[in-house]
Amino acid sequence: MSVENPSVAASNASTGIVIIGAGLAGWHVIDAIRAKDKDIPITLITSDNGDRYHKPMLTMAISQKKSAADLVRATGSDAAEAANITLLANTQVTDIDAAAQTIQLISALRSDPVYTNYATISYDKLVLAMGAHPIFPKSLPQDLVWHVNHIERFGQLQEKLATGSQHVAIVGAGMVGTEIAEDLLKAGHEVTLIDLNNAPLSQMLPAKATARIAEAVKSQGINFLGGYLVTDVIRISDDNEGENNIGKLQVSYEPFASNVEDTDAQSSEILIVDHVIASTGLTVDGKLPTAAGIDFNRRTGIEVDAPTLRTTTNNIYAIGDCMSINGVACRYVAPLRAQAATIADDVLGLKHSGYEHKPPMIRLKNKAISVMVTGVPQAAGNWQVKTETDEELIMDLIDDNNEVSATVTIKAPVMPKG
Predict the structure, then answer these.
(1) How far is 332 from 210, CA to CA, in rounded Å?
(2) Which residues contact 373 (CB under 8 A, 6 or more apart)?
(3) Which distant-in-sequence residues (6+ apart) come within 8 Å of 65 by Cβ?
(4) Into which CATH architecture does domain 2-59+72-132+284-347 fall?
(5) Identical fold at 134-278 and 362-411?
(6) Tens digit of pLDDT for each residue in 195-251?
(7) What is the mean pLDDT of residues 330-343?
(8) Could you say which of 70, 95, 242, 401 has the lowest number of CB atoms within 10 Å?
(9) Order of strands across the sheet with 125-128?
């Protein structure tokens, strides 16, 4: 059953399992529970319409000419009916009372306070699958800068880019920013990729590895500005910048302080672009975890017990981008099914062997170079070269126990013969 009015849901829904967040993590939990119990009441609360889609596809969809609608596997209402759950779409959770095991809701369907719907619903078990949100530094105003972290926002950007070749600046050269850069380039756009570090993926890999990635990115025709800090983004409204630039964005940037010896010698430079995309990391909203008394870190997420994925508050679980294990954020798709299966068994009171967290293999989606990472990589540390040729670089990260904690394998692409 699909319900879009939380006040109606409050009067009709039975106490059972409540899930906050309708991304991959939330729907995986529903699938796992329904595989073992067809009838237990489940309520899914989401601030959007609850459509099912595969988020990793967002970094490849523009060049593949796939619209937001093309990426939707099932509408929220259809998916809710198929799973026999109550869907509270376009609804915000404003508070969690962990002692009373209740949730306060407000409908986002109407902006007029006269028509706003408030409600309280109860839960036996609560699953937080609310994801993480893009970080917007003060230099990247949200009203001017895009992010590609949600299908609705992606669809809006895609509409703007459909008018022809444009110049896009991407701030942040992590996994997502680097993948988006290639996708936009393949779609025929001019791309400038800007990062504080001298090479892409510098937060997770050593300089010897990232230097190869930087070279590959540049070889594609992407303008990579490494070692620069974006200080401001403004809309051009003055014809002093040239009549053809009115309405475009002016991006100001300067050498990052840690990369220059004389900070007084820094000089700001300007880039004129059509769009700016922020790929500057993720943060987890602390309002609900704090209200529920859950141990939490804004950067890494909600702390859980690894074998059960229970939070530090009774009867509340967490999964996906909002969750962390042993202080490490878990923001990868591959482990979600196993995590959801563990939560399903635990909330249903079934015996299970416990979730065993294994960091997934990380692959950079880039045609110019093959990058595969296993373990828990970090730029700092004792990285040792295992293999080094023009075609391949393999490095291991050795921990304090002299064991391999991460491995990176970088290979040049195999060029077709003829």
Answers:
(1) 21
(2) 204, 205, 361, 362, 363, 406, 407, 408, 409
(3) 187
(4) 3-Layer(bba) Sandwich (3.50)
(5) no
(6) 999 999 999 999 999 999 999 999 999 999 999 999 999 999 865 555 678 889 999
(7) 93
(8) 401
(9) 2-3, 86-88, 42-45, 17-20, 125-128, 316-318
